[in-house]
Structures are given as structure tokens and as C-alpha cells.
Amino acid sequence: MLLRQLVELSERPDFALPPSGYAPTAIRYIIELDAAGQPLKRTLTDTADPSRPEARRGRQLNAPALRRTSAVAAVLLADNATYVLGWPKDSSAEAAQRARECQRAFRDLVADCAHKTGLPSVAAVARFLERDPCAQLELGEDFDPSAIITFRVEGGLPFEQRAVRAYWLERTTRAEERLQCLVCGEVRPVLPRLPTAIKGLPGGQPSGTALISANNSAFESYGLQASLIAPICRDCAERSHHVLNRLLRSEQYHLRIGPGVFVYWTREETPFSIVALLDQPQPQDVEQLLRSVYGGPAAALEANRFYATVLSGNGGRAQVRAWLDTTLGEAQANLARWFRRQAIVGPWGEEPRHLGVRALAEATVRDIRELAPSALPSLIMAALGGQPLPPDLAQRALLRTRAEGRVEHRHAALLKLARCGQYPEEEDTMVRLDLSNEQPAYLCGRLLAELEQAQRTALPGAKAGIVDRYYGTACTAPASIFGTLIQNAQAHLAKLERDNPGAYYGIQSTLEDILSRLPAFPLTLSLSEQSLFALGYYHQRAYNRDQALTHGKEKQA
User: Fold this and answer.
1) DSSP string of 323-375, one letter each residue
2) Percentage of residues in the chain with pLDDT exceeding 90?
3) pLDDT tens digit string along 202-241?
4) Residue 299's pLDDT band (boundaries 50, 70, 90)?
5) Quick one: CA dihedral 328, 329, 332, 333, positive or negative?
6) Labelling 174: which of 142, 314, 384, 417 has CA 20 to 30 A away?
7) How far apart are CA 77 and CA 85, in angstroms?
8) H or E element at residue 6
9) What angle do CA 545, 551, 554 make, to 5 degrees?
10) Is 59:46 a contact under the CB 8 Å cutoff?
């Protein structure tokens, strides 16, 4: 299904494809030749532009492409220095022998192309290669042997000529079998190895990853090997892979977070940008989204299909972590619901500020590079597919609150989002402090925040508070610690009663109200109750901060 929709996308006018057998390639160096194959200058033309991210490795051109393994296999008229110049990768004898074999393969390939096409420009390149290429050129100290090198003969690039394209297509299309293509359904020649690779996947090889491959008998079936385990014709393979690479190069269609990358597209063009809303949602954009779906999706949105996937790389293979096929209207409605469910008051009582996928993912880890592979797919499917978040994300967020000894905005937003998937009725009641909520876990979280408020008010210079020391125990086994915390708080309350009666009566009345609703402290709290505890703590602390700011402003006035 994924490849079929990518092939369908390739038919859109704004997704023009390179010629068959070609792929967008960063070509850094160009050897300038005359019609006789003599260098017009001894230095290479460097097309790299460090000021432009898309040109740091060289100018992007549609050039001959080939999936290469460890065996010697030259790419026609555009390859690295080992193949074009016979440049060894190191000083060993094995590397020198390998370089000679690669350069010979490249030279023979160009000579064969010149013979079969009869093109003067290709013949000029072949004559240049007959002599020692390195002896005819001056390579600077900053020369990069891994970069792609090609030739320009009298102002033209030989690989752009139609006869060269036809030669390369015939050269690389050597199908061994005719099978039914799983994408188009036609019985066509299929290739044992797909001609193009997916580039830019986190965790994948720089040379690219394969969507379909098998290099071990355990992965084979029905006697089919390599890419034949899921036979795809050349046309469908090139179309799907080129389009996916195009999406991965465009910031409009993908978002990279940790070990995964989210990619989406629609059947028809649309100005609506999902990536901007998922990455760094702006308040005005979220409000516009919420208003647009309030009355239900429009007919045009329901007719436009929406596709999304989450990919990652594992060496030479691509991994499909998630796949979504829905309508654009449904995706927008799910995204609007996702924003409503995560809405929660700011840490200082500010109006709710919506968070993107990256911020929510960061709530589960110390460093985004440690993000679990399942986190991004789970967040994407919750945001666009309307699925509830799995319990492991809430658990990871709770572990971070216990490790850090605090509940930050991103933790609270993720925990509320996870709870609302199970309890949709809490979507509005959990936005800010809910004085009517009498669930023991929520009240225990509020109680800890109020005891912390008493300590901070009485001892403003204290470095390590009760939350830093006891939050982990309080949110998992309240009965084992709250008796001690309340007893220790009496000294803080006595100091406040003497030095700050106003603060004392406010804190004391809140403590009495909370304790009057708690018949007993729970012995332990489940995962869902720990989330409720964290939200109660966060709500009460945000309320206390907001009250303090309001009181300070009134005092100044």
C-alpha cells in the first residue's frame, strides 16, 4: 500500500521524475575536456557551495545511478575518485589493487558506451581515461575523493544526452524473471535488486537503505531471493523510491525527530502544512485549525486522501514504523482533538500553550537521541490517526518526573494527552486546577504541592526541597511518606504563622480542605493514578504561582 500510494503521487505534476536509471545526485567535481579528450584546465571545477545546504556536497543533477554492494560496479560517467581516477582509499596494497580494478571497470564502461552510442562527447571521455587521469590533473589539498566526479565536453554533460540514457537503461535492466508486480499488478520483468535506494533515514547508511531486500535464507520464501521476495517492476520501484526521496529532501513534507522521520503527502495539492503544526505549533495556527474543524470537515477535505508514514533506518534497510491512510479532513479533525486533549495551563498560570511532537517526545527522555523507536510513531498516530497513546509513553514521562524531581509543562501535557485517550471526559476538567476532583491520587499530588509551598514560603533560600527528596516516593507509595511530610511541615507553618500570617492562613486552609477529602493515603498508586498525581501536583503549583503573581501586582498597584 505504501509503495502504491507513492507511485500514485509520482503522477502529480509537481513531482517530476528523473529519467529511468537516473537519480538526483550531488556532483561536486567536473573535469573540463575538449572534443579530443584533452583537459581544458588541470584543476577540477568545484560545484560545492558551503553557504547553501542543498549544495554543500555539490550541484544536484539527475545522473546515472546504481545500487552498489561490495563488488566492483562502476556508474556511467559519474562516480567517485576511486572509479574515475583510480584513487586508492588508503596506502595499503589491497586498496591500490582495488582502485586499479575500479578504474578499469569505469574505463571499460565508458568505452563500451562510446562504441554503442557513437557519441563524440563520450568518445572524448574514453580517450581521456585511456591515459593516466591523475597525471593530467592537479588535485588540491582539500580534494574529497568520496565526492562524485563527472565530465563536461565542450560545455555539455555527456550523461544528459538521450542516447546515453537509453544505453544506461538497457545496461542496468537485466531482469532474470517475469513476475506479477505487487504495486501495479502487471506481469513484468522484475529486478533481483531495486535500482534506487532511500537516502537520509536516521540510522541508515549514507549510501542509502533498501525498502525491500533479503540477504539471508531466513528472510526468503518460495525460492525467491534478494528483492524478488516482494517482486516490483522497475518502473514502480523507481517511481516510488524517487518520490519518497523527494519527500525526504523537502522540509514541507517531513519531520525528523530522534531515530525516526515522519513523512506525509496528499493525493491532491493543498496549502495546509501538517509539518509546521506538528513541529512548532503557533497559537494562531492552532486556533484556526480548531475553528476550521468545529463544524465538521468540508467535502473537499474529505475527498482528498491523506497518507503518512514513520520510517527509520537499520544499516542498509529501511524500517516502516507506522502507516496511515485516511482523508485530509479526518486527519485535521484528529489533530484538532489532539491539541485539545494536551491543552494544560502553563507552569505560572498562563493560558494553555500547545506543544509539538518534538517537545512531547522530549518529555520521555533525558536526551532526544535516546528516544525510543516506538515513541515517534505512537505520537504521530495519536495526532493524525486519532489513536490513544500507549501506556509506555506515560510511563517514560513519569520516570522522567521522578528522576528530575519536578513536573514540567511538557510532562504534564503528555500525561494529560495520554489520560484523555482513556478518559475523554477529562479533556476540559484537567486543563487547570479542578477543586471538585476528589480522586485520592489527584488530592495527594495537590497536597505535595501545598506542602512544598509552605516550605518555600517559610524558607525561601532552601536549596533542596521536599519535592527534590521525596517526589518519587510520594507519587508511588503516598502512605509511606505523607505522614512524615505533614509532621515536618508543622515547623514551616509555625514560622509562617509568626512571620507571615496571611500566607499561613491561605496555606493552612488549603491543606485542611485537601486533607478533609482524603479518608486515607493510598498504599500504592497504579500507572494511571501516578499520572493523576503528577497532574494534581502540577495544577496546584501553577495555581499557587499564579496567585502569588496576582498578589504581587495588586500590592504594587
Assistant:
1) EEEEEHHHHHHHHHHHHHHH----TTSPPP----HHHHHHTT-SSGGG--TTH
2) 64
3) 988 887 888 887 766 666 666 676 777 788 888 888 889 9
4) low
5) negative
6) 314
7) 12
8) helix 2-9
9) 145
10) no
Contacts of 454 (CB under 8 A, 6+ apart): 489, 492, 493, 496, 507, 511
pLDDT of residue 220: 64
pLDDT digits (tens, 9 = 90+) for 171-180: 887 655 788 8
What percentage of the chain has pLDDT greater than the value 70? Answer: 96
Contact status, residue 365 vs residue 371, Cβ threshold 8 Å: yes
**How many residues can be counted in the chain?**
557
Contact 366, 414 (CB under 8 A): no
CA distances from 133 to 30, 36, 139 (A): 13, 15, 11
- The Cα angle at residue 214 between residues 213 and 215, in degrees rounded to 5: 125
Nearest CA among 360, 349, 344 for reference residue 426: 344
C-alpha distances in Å from residue 409, one per residue of 378, 414, 444, 485? 20, 9, 19, 25
Task: Tell me phi and psi for residue 266, to 5 degrees.
Answer: -125, 155
The answer to whether the predicted template modeling score (pTM) of the entire model surpasses 0.90 is: no
Q: What is the pLDDT of residues 38-62, one digit of tens each?
A: 999 999 999 988 877 667 788 989 9
Torsion of CA 344, 345, 348, 350, to 10 degrees: 130
Give the position of cell 535464507.
217
Rg value, the chain, Cα: 32
Cα(379)–Cα(371) distance, integer angstroms: 12
Q: What confidence score (pLDDT) does residue 68 get?
A: 79
The helix/strand/coil state of 516 is helix
Contacts of 431 (CB under 8 A, 6+ apart): 343, 344, 345, 352
Q: How far apart are CA 253 and CA 209, in angstroms?
A: 19
CA pair distance 431, 9, nearest whole angstrom: 41
183-207 burial, b if ≥16 CB within 10 A, otherwise e? bbeeebebbebbbbbbbbbbbbeee
Q: Which three cell numbers stand for residue 187?
A: 506481469
Q: Give the residue-averaged pLDDT of 347-366.
A: 94
Would you tell me how many other CB atoms lie within 10 Å of the CB of residue 416?
Answer: 24
| Confidence band, pLDDT 50/70/90 cuts, at residue 286 | very high
Letter for the amino acid at 433? L
Of the candidates 239, 237, 243, 233, the residue with the CA atom closest to the CA atom of residue 185: 233
> Does the structure show a pLDDT above 60 at 502?
yes
For the chain, helix, strand, coil in percent to 5 are: 50, 15, 35
Dist. CA 83–CA 101, nearest whole Å = 8
Question: Cell digits for 555?
Answer: 500590592
